[in-house]
Amino acid sequence: MADLHTFRKETRRWLEANAPASMRTPPANPDQICWGGRKTRYPDDVRRWLAVMAERGWTAPTWPREYGGGGLAKGEAKVLAEEMAKLRLRPPLTGFGLAMIGPLLLQEGSEELKREHLPPIVRGEIRWCQGYSEPGSGSDLASLQTRAVRDGDVFVVNGQKVWTSYGDKSDWMFLLVRTDFAAAKHSGISFLLMDLETPGVSVRPIMLISGSSPFCETFLADVRVPVRNVVGRVNGGWVLAKALLGHERTMIADAFKERDDAKRLVALARRYLGEDGGRVADARARDRIAQLEMDQACLDLTLARARDGAKAGHKPGPESSIFKLYGTELNQRRRELMVEILGPQALGWEGPGFSEEELKLTRDWLRSRGNSIEGGTSEVQLNIIAKRVLGLPD
Ligand SMILES: Cc1cc2nc3c(=O)[nH]c(=O)nc-3n(C[C@H](O)[C@H](O)[C@H](O)COP(=O)(O)OP(=O)(O)OC[C@H]3O[C@@H](n4cnc5c(N)ncnc54)[C@H](O)[C@@H]3O)c2cc1C
Question: What is the DSSP string of 48-80?
Fold first, then answer.
């Protein structure tokens, strides 16, 4: 405890001395969130914050030091998170490298792959995207058709991926390919790491209902990927694919954990529905806000328990489907309530008559429709919970 106390004091002092003042406020727009990578130029303070935190390995506080991480014990990582929260500091880095492929490589990667890929993830040098879904394979992912045929020490990859989030902004992709065409569908899949600069890769953004274009179609034509880039064993990719989905689903639910949303919701309700004796005037809105925040608190506490379990070495299992289902549907309820509170002011798309904040809330609400699809739909999560968590018959 004495050690933790000292660690807390030193951490606080270091954060106060090294965090740029502008990093103590939430990002004003998505461009200020640091995903790292070679293709995006971030504001100076964002880059400075990333650099100082990465140097200590504190972008990945619990990863081992030999792979660039902070090597912190569970208690120390918790103290760091608490001190960052007290100073209202932004995470220095986010992304699929830290949340998905990094944890998978730590668990299942060869020493060579860990040494090659983990340090650049920690430093935010390489941004990763996920090549799972295909035009004919979403929920039934194991039916995927992208082919990888061995030619000496490379695989020649042909096929198409779709819904590749941030494919155009990423540097590398982790993807699933079929390497045995005769085997049962789950048995012939391998898990590959691919540099998106490799000849034969082309990425095309798709425009969404929210007006932005965060994901892409990825076309692969005779792309030559070294065999040593296979994670695990050839044809053994399905087990890894599922393990990674566990990390992904926890990450998605984590993204919706309580931040300032409760205060924001109450402030919006006061502004648009009026006040009565210091309270939100509309009793029904008060009731819905209170219910939402209680449900959010339950999710936050359950996620905190799962995070503690993960730090103690417990791999995410099928229960991550519960977080994914509940977290995404809760976020959709929150976004829905926000636009209801705004009333007609939520009907804008662009132009005069609507503030920047109103326009953003409308677009965020539209974006939230995808939450119950990405990372596996809500129906698929319910199937997994029924079969693998509750043990119900098919
Ligand atoms: C915002 C967003 C980001 C994404 N990012 C990525 C990414 O980075 N990389 C990537 O590889 N993919 C990504 N995806 C794709 C995502 O994983 C798929 O959209 C998802 O798995 C569903 O597949 P599908 O779209 O083919 O729908 P389908 O599988 O065709 O499903 C259509 C409907 O049928 C239902 N359904 C299907 N099977 C069953 C069943 N067995 N039981 C009950 N209902 C069923 C589904 O719930 C759904 O309502 C993203 C999707 C979104 C929305």
Answer: HHHHHHHHTTTTSTTS-GGGTS----HHHHHHH
Predicted confidence at residue 349, as pLDDT, reads 87
Name all residues whose Cβ lies below 6 A of ligand 1. 129-133, 138-139, 163-165, 215, 370, 373-374, 376-377, 379-380, 383
pLDDT tens string 140-150: 999 999 999 99
Mean residue pLDDT across the chain:
92
Q: Which two tokens stand for residue 67?
A: 């792979």
Is 248 known to be catalytic?
Answer: yes
Given a cut of 80, whether residue 267 has pLDDT beyond it is yes
146-152 contact pairs (CB < 8 A, 24+): 146/175, 146/176, 146/177, 146/178, 146/220, 147/177, 147/178, 147/181, 148/177, 148/178, 148/179, 148/190, 148/192, 148/225, 149/179, 150/179, 150/227, 151/224
pLDDT tens digits, one per residue of 227-242:
999 999 999 999 999 9
| DSSP structural state of residue 349 | -
Say which of 83, 134, 248, 358 is annotated catalytic: 248
pTM attached to this predicted model: 0.89
Closest-CA residue, ligand 1 atom 25, reads 138
* Residue with CA nearest ligand 1 atom 32: 139
Task: Assess contact for 46 and 32: CB atoms under 8 A.
Answer: yes
Going by pLDDT thresholds of 50, 70 and 90, the confidence category of residue 215 is confident
